[in-house]
């Protein structure tokens, strides 16, 4: 890609959060801290029971709110009234619409569409695309799920889309061996037609990652947690997604 870089500044993973000091991931406080420090922002979208995208990483409520159950079990109104555990500011999760209104174009947003089940997959893509359609600032969508990338474009999103990937080497209940091969080698490219990659830092030397970058697709890497890891990743990437330290910013 030519011209201005797609990812000009380091990207704060779920905002510039610091739980020890009461700043919780994917919270208003974490996002304001990232903007104040001059970083771009990565965040996550889940879908509530009434079909509203909310800025929240886990599909389960327990780790971040102390409440049992799933995000998909409660309404957006209930979700946005749940205090985030240990938040010194009393932050609660935000809807995607409220999040965009707060950020208001002040920094680039790398927004992950989390994997959903069944009809929630197109619902999240449709709602996210519709909400983003009037947003005036820089925003990109990404997902581990190639279907989400295809769907968000189908529903009218015109900006850059990215595939999130890693080595897909460990056997697990989520993917069969053929599915892992398909995802690791990005055989969905003719359909997903992604514009950039977001790659786990241990997968940066995978052949398809290297090929895609040579073909001009920007690569971000997650999650970088030290200056040493940032230096090691630098030859292979266009930008880092970081947490737990403050990387240098370009002048």
UniProtKB/TrEMBL annotation:
GO biological process: lipid metabolic process
Domain GP-PDE: 8-251
GO function terms (MF aspect): phosphoric diester hydrolase activity
Name this protein carries in UniProt: Glycerophosphodiester phosphodiesterase
Signal peptide: none
Matching InterPro entries: GP_PDE_dom (IPR030395), PLC-like_Pdiesterase_TIM-brl (IPR017946)
Pfam annotation, one family: GDPD
Organism in which the protein naturally occurs: Arsenicitalea aurantiaca
Source domain of life: Bacteria
């Amino acid at each position: 890609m030519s011209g201005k870089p797609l990812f000009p500044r380091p990207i704060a993973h779920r905002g510039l959060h610091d739980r020890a000091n009461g700043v919780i991931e994917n919270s208003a406080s974490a996002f304001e801290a990232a903007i104040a420090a001059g970083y771009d922002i990565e965040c996550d979208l889940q879908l509530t029971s009434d079909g509203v995208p909310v800025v929240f990483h886990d599909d389960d409520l327990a780790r971040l709110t102390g409440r049992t159950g799933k995000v998909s079990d409660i309404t957006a109104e209930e979700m946005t009234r749940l205090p985030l555990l240990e938040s010194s500011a009393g932050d609660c999760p935000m809807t995607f619409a409220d999040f965009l209104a707060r950020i208001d174009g002040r920094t680039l947003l790398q927004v992950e569409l989390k994997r959903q089940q069944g009809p929630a997959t197109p619902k999240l893509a449709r709602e996210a695309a519709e909400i983003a359609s009037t947003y005036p600032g820089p925003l990109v969508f990404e997902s581990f799920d190639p279907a989400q990338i295809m769907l968000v474009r189908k529903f009218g999103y015109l900006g850059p889309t990215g595939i999130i990937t890693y080595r897909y080497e460990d056997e697990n209940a989520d993917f069969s061996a053929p599915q892992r091969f398909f995802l690791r080698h990005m055989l969905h490219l003719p359909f997903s037609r992604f514009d950039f990659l977001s790659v786990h830092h241990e997968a940066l030397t995978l052949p398809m990652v290297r090929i895609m970058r040579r073909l001009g697709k920007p690569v971000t890497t997650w999650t970088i947690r030290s200056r040493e890891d940032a230096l090691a990743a630098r030859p292979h990437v266009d930008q880092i997604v970081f947490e737990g330290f403050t990387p240098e910013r370009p002048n």
